[in-house]
Amino acid sequence: MPEIPLTTAPLLSPNLTDLPQAEAALKIAWEELEKQIELTITQTTGFSSENARQLSNCFATTKHLCQELKTQMKQAISRLDFHADNSPMAVIEWDSRCRIIHWSPQAEKMFGWTNAEILGQDWHDLSIIDETECESVNLIANKLLAGSETRSVSCHRNYTKDGSIIHCEWYSSALKDAAGKVISVLSFAVDVSERHRTQEELRRRERDFSTIVENSTDVIARYDRELRHLYVNRAVETATGKSPAEFTGKTNQESEMPVHFCHLFDEYIVKVFRTGQQETVEFEFLTPQGRKHYHCRVIPEFAADNSVETVLTIARDITELKQVELQLRHSEAKFRSIVNSNLI
Hints:
Elements: H1 19-45, H2 49-85, E1 90-95, E2 100-103, H3 105-111, H4 115-118, H5 134-146, E3 151-159, E4 165-176, E5 182-191, H6 193-214, E6 219-223, E7 229-232, H7 235-240, H8 259-275, E8 279-287, E9 290-302, E10 308-317, H9 319-340
Antiparallel strand pairs: 1-2, 1-5, 3-4, 4-5, 6-7, 6-10, 8-9, 9-10
């Protein structure tokens, strides 16, 4: 039987850029195989009709199975293409020579370049990477291509076609052949610019909060449900002689605060956790500067589900105010005693 010509074999490359050529090569090879088998069946008929019939039936069954397999493969590829094209992530694939071989519709939408503009381009030639991050991106790409890492997760500043800056999270993985050689790298990119802006705003507010709180003369502390200090500002050192670090992660009792103070504070904090209502309390406290009088607000802080997540206490030294009130009461008492003495 004549041999099947394999002139198209070099087209059967594992590189995904050659997929259309590989499919064409397989089609040609299959057509040639059909011709050769039909010729063989014809030649066999002259010697044994039964053998020819069996051979024909086997070939028909094989052809039917191949057709079913081809249909299933097309359906599987179609499903993968559908999910990739409709994914909220940009799907980008590039080969071992850093040429882009797949650029999904979401990638077009996210970065601005069309599929026709991108395919076959070396990603180094695209102004998609921020200059300050080129070194770190190259390091990740080289590790994936060398096979020293099979997957990578990173976050970078990226440029769009119109020059806008977006922040993206990248999830990349290396695809290898049976010999362990890297064929291509598949990357999923998510635009997290909005989240980045939110995080930056939160960081800015935290800096503002920290600046205000750390320079406040009020003693400000945050408690969790186990009555442990999550935060306490520097003013606590003036009031207690202890540094903030001596309170963080501990309850008032574990921080060796006076027993009566622990009982009073714990009672109000537990009440606010239970009711979700702000409370106020006044108390005296022996500080390194002497006995002081404080007015304290106990404030609930709510979680997303509207439950009380933490409690904030703000204690203000009102010793001078109390002294003025006392002086006023003494003055008022003297005035009343004079009025009541009937000297006028």
